[in-house]
Amino acid sequence: MKSIRFRRSSSRLALPAVLGAALLTFGLASSASAANPDPIPASFSFSDCPTLPAGASPDYSQCWVAVVTSGTFKVGNFDQKIEEPIRITWATTFNLDTFETQNVFGGINAPKMLVQPGLFGDPLLSAVYAKVEYAGAFEMPVSDNFEINIGLKIKLVNPLLGSNCYVGSNSNPIRVALTTGTTSPPAPNTPITGEGVSIARPDSSPPVLQAKHVGNSFAVPGAKGCLFGGGVADWLVNQVGGFPSAAGKNTMIQNEYIVSKNYSEL
Question: How does DSSP classify residue 202?
Fold first, then answer.
């Protein structure tokens, strides 16, 4: 797993030094960058912070929480606006003995999103919801554009589809490459540009950052396990959902606020 180079700051450092480290960490944009259009969340939960690996220093390891407040979630024929917050948590760790850094994924806390009002024509029994889940792949390449590569799977929720109907899996995830820079997707998608990390609220504790991540170069596999886990309805879900969906036909856009705390403060 690749690691991003982070400058670690002790919890005893003053606020300007913490913000300065954040500027260097993410290559923060200037204050002139477009602001997140959504209100800053009233609170940020650190409940999904992962356990530190052996040897990692609590004073120089940080837990990061990104709250996606709006955006676009388009896969196949499903084109959904993000209207409820999605929380993504990870850690950047530093070992004082080996001087090694490591990125450790914490979790995704995402609500169900209505993506199909009626799979079979009715609005109740056959309405389909999608819930984004982590699929076991996470890395942050060294970059000026705060890149995040993550493996995802989408659970399709409906009484007729059973409890194991997924688009993507741990063995065959949806591999999404997100950037705050500009994408280079295959056709028919065209390049889109995110927003670099900037300071949204410096006077809070912890300081609140903001960013816009985008990705539209990823492919989406077909659905598996639908209709009570037996896969009998895979063909129908794939037909309605437009799966598999080739790279260049899918898009994720995330407006987000980001905070971090040293593990010594948790």
Answer: T
